[in-house]
Amino acid sequence: MIHYRIVVSDPHTHLVDVSIEADVEGAADLVLPAWTPGSYKIRDFAQHIHGFHSAQRFEKVDKNTWRVNAGAGKLRANWQAYCHELTVRTSHVDDEHAALVLSNMLMYVDGRKDEPCRVEIRAPRGWKVACSLDPAGPGAFSAPDYDTLVDAPVECGTFEEFAFKVAGKPHRLVWHGDSNLDLKRFKRELPKIVKAEIDMMGVVPYDRYLFILHFTDDGKGGGLEHLSSTSLAFPRWGFRPEDKHERFLGLVSHEFFHLWNVKRIRPQVLGPFDYERENYTRLLWAMEGVTSYYDDLFLRRAGLIGAEKYLKTVSETGERVQETPGRLRQSLADSSFDAWIKYYNPGEHSANATVSYYEKGALVSMLLDLEIRRRTKNRRSLDTVLRLLWKEYAAKGIGFPEGRYEEACSDVAGASLHGFFEKYIRGTEELNYNRYLAAAGLRLVRKAPKKGAPATKPWLGLRTEKKEGRTLVAAVAADSPAQRAGVHAGDELLALGGHRVDHDAWEKRLEERRAGERLELAFFRGSRLSRTRVVVGSKRTGAWAIEKLPAANAEQKALYGSWMGEPWDARKSAKA
Question: Within 10 Å of residue 359's Cβ, how many Cβ atoms?
């Protein structure tokens, strides 16, 4: 067994002391991961490691590897890790708590990641320790191997907690501090989400489950999945109004479902991991997009939102994707493969050249689900595909070959889905929403604007930001009037049509113009004053919506009811 110890002695310094002890003969390499599973970007956590020390002779051989010559005895080494970044993928220590992402600080002995491990957490007096690993003594936990060990975040502090059982298994939620989350309500909702997902998959692959919730003060949030736990971050005062609370529930649903889809139902490359370099797959759309499709659908199945609200959320996602020029330039397969260099490194041109495998992946997953239901007369669905992959691979603890996902979908559908995958996953063809929504008696439409509102509005294709009192161009849409006029990201806007504008007045002045009108645009490019003439374009108004077909037949209505878990003619729910 390889032994680790983490000591949080002076939390105000944001430093923790880490040590390792292992039986080793001769030289051994200690390696720190360069990334953490679930967040597909090389982050070089070794930058936060300081003061490496060993009683034996050692040398650093590359950015994240230390070679120690233990001779014929035990390898012993210690170091410090600096922890001052509160995200779900990094560690944070202060006088209130310690949130430890173990891949940030625990090195493995090269070639021995499959050996049992034990980690002891020594926290300040009065602090509690929460972790989903098997208990191995006071403040200590054990794991069958390194992968399992670092796939379990640790939370220390004087946190509050809530425990409940679903399917006979214990679940625990821990959190620190105040927020405007309605905890009384959330304690009723969380078990319903857990039950809805367990009911669909039909298997509970863990002995216990831990939800760690952090409230952030910078407006940022997110989640990261683990084998038997998840870390969640959400703005402290961001849970209201109702739409924001439901968005939080969707995050919880998303991360919990990952315990099946991605942590166990996964491509072969996603475990065991190579922690030193990129692990490429073209199936992140299936891991993240499919999970994004199900997250709000589980809220519907759990009765936490109505069908109308669910379909509204889907239409909003569709609108965002359709307004992303990159959807026609990057396929979902390529978006998945390039996540390491593009998704986590967005820039001014990203929307023109890339597409989100989360959002477009969710939409394609919905269409795929509806197509499988249509072909099988609603006897099978995407649910069936996931349960099949579970039985064939995940239940055996192995990942599936890259090409098996399409094959499994075709097997379940009873016919080849090659054309679907070629057009919408490996290709960039526009999604034919209504072809697939029709199976459930639905269609996607653009609603007419409110009475008295114009059908179109003036549009230049600029996104602006206010910075130090200046109005800067943050991004320029591809094939937009602004791009054709030669406007660049980074330009400082000064005047429109000969009149000075600031950030607050920019949109108002533009709304006063007509499509086809030629205007002079004045701006600074660096220190140089520039002018160009731009022809005002137009953009349709009115929100997208998914509505029922007036002449839907009995088969369509039945499929809708099965999919939505709500009869076609059900009254509008108050939650809708």
Answer: 19
Asked, as a colleague might, if the bond just before 138 is cis with ω within 30 of 0, I would say: no
Q: Within a 10 A sphere around the Cβ of 206, how many other Cβ atoms?
A: 16
Task: Pinpoint the alpha helices (H) of 202-302.
Answer: 242-257, 284, 290-301
Which tens digit of pLDDT belongs to each residue from 465-480? Answer: 999 999 999 999 999 9
CA distance to 88, 250, 316, 363, 365, per residue, from 359 (Å): 20, 13, 10, 7, 10
Residue 258: inside a domain, yes or no?
no
Backbone torsions φ then ψ of 447, nearest 5 degrees: -70, 150
Q: What is the pLDDT of residues 184-200, one digit of tens each?
A: 999 999 999 999 999 99
The answer to whether residues 408 and 468 belong to one domain is: no
Tens-place pLDDT, residues 506-521: 888 898 999 999 999 9
Q: How confident is the model at residue 572 (pLDDT cuts 50, 70, 90)?
A: low
The torsion angles phi and psi of 356, rounded to 5 degrees, stand at -80, 125
Tell me the backbone φ, ψ of residue 235, rounded to 5 degrees.
Answer: -55, 135
Q: Which pLDDT value is given to residue 576?
A: 45
Tell me the CATH number at 34: 2.60.40.3650
Nearest CA to 561 out of 464, 455, 481, 442 is that of 442
Q: Which domain holds residue 352?
A: 280-447+548-576
CA-closest candidate to residue 272, choices 47, 111, 385: 111
Judgement on whether residues 316 and 288 belong to the same structural domain of the protein: yes
Distances (CA, A) of 348 to 207, 317, 551: 45, 21, 45
Contact indicator for 567, 440 with CB cutoff of 8 Å: no
Asked whether residue 313 falls in the same domain as residue 402, the answer is yes
The residue whose two tokens read 């967005």 is: 346
CA atoms within 13 A on the CB side of 309: 20
CA distance 257 to 236: 24
Q: Are residues 141 and 17 in the same domain?
A: yes
**Amino acid identity at 195:** K
Instruction: For residue 15, give the amino acid letter.
Output: L
CA distance 364 to 370: 10
Query: Hey, what long-range contacts does 562-571 have (CB within 8 A, 24 or more apart)?
Result: 562/373, 562/378, 563/369, 563/370, 563/373, 563/381, 563/440, 564/300, 564/307, 564/310, 564/440, 565/300, 565/301, 565/307, 566/300, 566/306, 566/307, 568/441, 570/307
Coil, helix or strand at residue 501: coil
Residue 425's Cα: distance from chain center in Å?
Answer: 19
What gap in Å lies between CA 102 and CA 87, rounded to an integer?
13
Six-digit token string for 513: 């113009």
Pairing between strand 499-500 and 518-525? unpaired
Is residue 174 in a domain? no
Give the separation between CA 83 and CA 154, rounded to whole angstroms: 13
Q: What are the C-alpha distances in Å from 145 to residues 7, 133, 262, 325, 423? A: 21, 11, 19, 44, 41
- Mean pLDDT, residues 11-38 taken together: 96
